[in-house]
Amino acid sequence: MVSRRNFLGGAGAVTAAVSAAAVSKVAMAALPEPVIQSKPDTMPPLVPNTGRPYNPVVTLNGWTLPWRMNNGVKEFHLVAEPVVREMAPGFKAHLWGYNGQSPGPTIEVVEGDRVRIFVTNKLGELTSIHWHGQRLPNGMDGVTGLNQPGIPPGKTYVYEFVARRPGTFMYHPHADEMVQMAMGMMGFWITHPRAKHPLIDEVDRDFCFLLNAYDIDPGSYTPKIMTMLDFNLWSWNSRIFPGIDPLVVSHMDKVRIRIGNLTMTNHPIHLHGHEFLVTGTDGGPTPKSTRRYEVTEDIAVGQMRQVEFLADEEGDWAFHCHKSHHTMNAMGHDVPTMIGVDHRGVAKQITKLVPDYMVMGERGMKDMTEMEMPLPDNTAAMMTGQGPFGSVGMGGMFSVVKVRKGQKRGDYGDPGWFKHPPGTVAYEFTGELPDPARFKAEGTGSMSPVAKPAQEVEVKVRKPGGGHGGHN
């Protein structure tokens, strides 16, 4: 984490300045120093050193924005600007965001805090910020043209309000929204309760992340902003597996995970090995009488869900979106199905002429995790990630909740792969089992079929022959 002064003096200066409007040094002098984060790692929680105390959150592959106290007001400084986001090792995207990253930093405050946010526009067009889910004065709601004029390039606007209710919220532009959100402009906002709250339990670990999606052609760096449905990169906090960090917890920790959805579709988020309670939405904490145990929670567009569970099962537990194509990277939408057809030789020839040519493997997509497919520069592999037993064969919205005994409080370091007790890993069967007696007693159907085919029909793959003869 570096200051704006140090950041612009380093290698990131060229990228940060692309299309950025100049901001007066005199105007910047009175503002809180903009803090910049260019690393894509999960940063430790920011323990408050001023203001009311609280248990801070951990932003997955992100960080929390520091503030300064000014006569009882918490002051933050957000800088809207072009950024370079490493979405996975070896794959970077040219996005728009805040303070060096997309999504921007998480803002954490306490219920009742007086908050002042300075927003400096270093983009080449008007912008604003809408504080999604907040109760605030109408003129601070951030809808350009309706509640405020847009923030011109090179200018700094101020938002001031009281954090009136605890909960999990988001921020994003309401100016040229289709472009700016498609380019990655968004962030999380957490308002902690100021005292013990009847509907908000204390937890040992508190994680948050945003669901977002991009359409970036193989070999490209910049999202296609006109895409409405056919995205090819499904991400958490603008990271894709295997670039998404694990959520590391200690055995028997009470864990809270806050998830916000700013994509163009819903996401059924699924946790293995545990069931969780849905304890909050962007409307606030849910009444305890309405809470239910789930292992999958569907999160619609523009919604937030807060889930909590007791980490009482050791292991490396998958945590992902349950839409199968959302756990893949650089997914093509016109990929033909070639299951059962040996096309490997011709595929290699085609990729020499068309580098981004991609086709389903002869035995399915899993083949592609072990094939050395030629890919254009700056292209994430479709399914990747190596686990202790080989290729995981996942991408996109996928991570791992690592539950370990002995993980110290406040330690979020990766403990490595889980060491399974003897006899607890699935294994190959090499013997024989007799048929259970019940199999012989089972019937073959409630009634005989009508018009049964005279002979059995087996569908076979027929490879196309050469030439175009024989057509009628």
UniProtKB/TrEMBL annotation:
Primary residence: periplasm
Keywords, ordered alphabetically: Copper, Metal-binding, Oxidoreductase, Signal
Signal peptide: 1-29
Cellular component GO terms held in the UniProt record: periplasmic space
Domain of life the protein comes from: Bacteria
UniProt name for this protein: Copper oxidase
Keyword match Cytoplasm: no
Record domain Plastocyanin-like: where: 90-195, 221-336
Keyword Ribosomal protein: no
Example GO molecular function: oxidoreductase activity
